[in-house]
Amino acid sequence: MGANRRFPLVFTLASLVALGALLTRPALAADSTVDPVVPVLLSLSIVLGAAKVAGWLSTRLGQPAVLGELIAGIVVGNLWIVGFYDLDWMRDDPTLSVLAELGIIVLLFEVGLESTVDRMRRVGASAFLVALIGVITPFALGWAAGAWLLPGSSPYVHAFLGAVLTATSVGITARVLKDLDATRSIEAQIILGAAVIDDVLGLVILAVVSGVIIAADQGGQGISLVEIAGISAKALGFLGASMLLGLLLSRRLFRIAARVRIRGILLTSALIFCFLFSYLAALADLAPVVGAFAAGLLLEPSHFDRFDERREHSLESLLHPISTFLVPVFFVLTGLRVDLRTLGEPGVLGLAAVLTAAAWIGKQACSLGILQRGVDRLTVGLGMVPRGEVGLIFANIGATMTIGGERVITPATYAAVVIMVIATTLVTPPALQWSLGRKRSPTPVT
Amino acid sequence: MGANRRFPLVFTLASLVALGALLTRPALAADSTVDPVVPVLLSLSIVLGAAKVAGWLSTRLGQPAVLGELIAGIVVGNLWIVGFYDLDWMRDDPTLSVLAELGIIVLLFEVGLESTVDRMRRVGASAFLVALIGVITPFALGWAAGAWLLPGSSPYVHAFLGAVLTATSVGITARVLKDLDATRSIEAQIILGAAVIDDVLGLVILAVVSGVIIAADQGGQGISLVEIAGISAKALGFLGASMLLGLLLSRRLFRIAARVRIRGILLTSALIFCFLFSYLAALADLAPVVGAFAAGLLLEPSHFDRFDERREHSLESLLHPISTFLVPVFFVLTGLRVDLRTLGEPGVLGLAAVLTAAAWIGKQACSLGILQRGVDRLTVGLGMVPRGEVGLIFANIGATMTIGGERVITPATYAAVVIMVIATTLVTPPALQWSLGRKRSPTPVT
């Protein structure tokens, strides 16, 4: 591309930076009497602008847009390198964080809409095995990595490191699948089903390992089988009961909603359905996105036949502007929370490299659980790799626990976990795009 | 309608209440470790559900949907009457409040898009006179009302009461005009232009009155003419400079943005433009909605000719789902913040009635400022009536100031102001709908 074509980009970037530098200073002087929407207006502008410019550059380089969004976030979040600290508040802004979560909830709802309970059931056994192997292998490998590189620490610490590696963060994979219009492929169905089951299994493992560590530290009884059964029953009960109720009631509920003849009722009913399922999932200690995905799975296009608005717009086209607005907020904020300072801590990089390898191999192994023939096992394995924020949540819990006066997750271990999360998250979009591109036509679910 | 037709509504309402009662209890037990999105998911479901059911009932009764949304908010916000306090946290939830503000910002941006700088300029003189009369008359009437009903208070208190009455809240009017598809009428243009100017004038009056009171109380110098000029210059400077810059640069900026060929760039560029203008307005101490309206005013459909997506969707159709999601949050939350307990305080109702009359007459007088012939003066006067949250912001400032040990705005006066705000806000939607309906075809701007 010629210099005159490059100009607008340089101009846009320069304007963004200049505007950012100019605008952010007064926000810092803002006291508590300032309308809370004011800093959000600025941060949304920066996040959306950075997402689009970086996403575009990323697609021009043949990479998925989400990779650009993540890197844009990392750049904005690490401007301390050039002595700029004025945007640091964005990292912990509670409102921005809620907007980001609403974004990923809407994305998983959209992805769920593109699938059906029936299609999911047909890959159920494979998804279950994929999830199970995808939890056991990284757990064992993480434990082994801990025992090898942290020989002085208690075995509980090694077990906890294994637990951290079990988590799967489905957001990145869902986004790449959606951008490539591959959510209806059998590989996508297996990945999404397995990610949901993984969330339940991860919850149980975390409860067991933390329970055992707290008991060992305080000399208590450990976690009882009854408690483990209770946690599992609560999570599985949510999934089972809500899917059953949803199957039985959703069509009727949407028929009732269709009688409310007012503008926007189709979109609003769908959003309420999505938000309530996400809320119920959170009550069962599952990730809200699991509920959003289940909500999308339950809804079929035929549910909306009676809506007047249906004639003008599909639900997907109504949701699209909302996800255009909110989804990039999630991915930029994910990047923004990456603190590159962790890279520099001594002894961290070795552990990080081993953990990343363990995370990678552990999830590749899970493709052995696929029962169907003709499924691209590499794609499924790659789709399960990203750990995202789920791994960090586990690590944060570990950081608050001690065993014999020693922190279960020390700052150095935490830094290694962060690097593992970055590595698995950043590599997945290009790897998945490449892997899906190899196979010209994704196998449909038969 | 027969009993079998009424059933779905009763069923929906009952389900909503039951679900609400069931779901809200666990949220209360939530500690700080709970993901902050969780309570937001619940409150959004309640707000959106209540908005649509009440909006539909309202339209069936021939009233604007926004009246139903306001009343739905008042009902949900005053469930203490039946001993239900579990939703009280929604009133002060910061995230819900930011979502509501983003809603009203998007609404004013949409309304601004339906107008042009040129059309606004043609009604400029009328809008200025309407704003000026609409500030002077309520100020005088409010002062007189204070002098009459609060004879024991200092004249400064009376003056402050006048200042409280000057504010115009454009949200309600904008919403009614948009729902009735009347934003392009000359009446709408005058109301919207006047509301923007009103915001500047209100800011100056508030600064002057508070400055004088603080000086009188602390024996200082009062506010100087230089300071008044500074405040006015800052606000007018923002409006003038941003409009000028916008006129000169917006076409070019959107041409550059159009070169970023990535999904969602049209909507995202428009949102960034809207958010940045709202932010700049806030920096000039103006309401963010003034900036959003100005941003919409500056953008013309021809700005978007080069966007690929333009071929599929207009910007308006892309914004519509976002406003369907967020706008009702604003109006329900406005209702939710109405505490009916204020109605019961002794001596309040008399002052409230007089203030409401003063607010009403004061804004009706402003239609005298219209220079064009054939304009429906009653509609313009009615459109300027609602005080909304702007009046409350003024009253809140007064509540923090004292003069000679006496609070400028006592709790009783504050309650009367709240009732005045409720009265002017609730009456406007039906009055405006009636007034616009009288004239079959709104006069276009010529």
Strand arrangement within the widest β-sheet of chain A reads 1-2
User: Helix-strand pattern of chain A, N to C?
Assistant: HHHHHHHHHHHHHHHHEEH
> Rough shape of chain A?
globular
Number of helices of chain A: 17
Portion of residues in beta strands of chain A equals: under 5%
Overall mean pLDDT of chain A:
80
CATH class type of the largest domain in chain A: Mainly Alpha
CATH topology of the largest domain in chain A: Na+/H+ antiporter like fold
Helix share, percent of chain A: over 70%
Summarize the main sheet of chain A: 2 strands, antiparallel
Write down the oligomeric state.
homodimer
- The radius of gyration over CA of chain A amounts to 22 Å
Give the second-level CATH assignment, the architecture of the largest domain in chain A: Up-down Bundle
Largest interface: A-B, 64 and 63 residues
Number of domains of chain A: 2
Terminal Cα separation of chain A, in Å?
45 Å
Number of strands of chain A: 2
Which class do the helix and strand fractions of chain A yield?
mainly alpha
List unreliable stretches of 5+ residues of chain A.
Answer: 1-8, 24-32
Transmembrane segments (chains A, B): 39-58, 65-83, 95-113, 125-150, 156-177, 189-216, 228-249, 270-298, 318-336, 348-371, 412-432
GO cellular component, one term (chains A, B): membrane
Protein name (chains A, B): Cation:proton antiporter
Main location (chains A, B): membrane
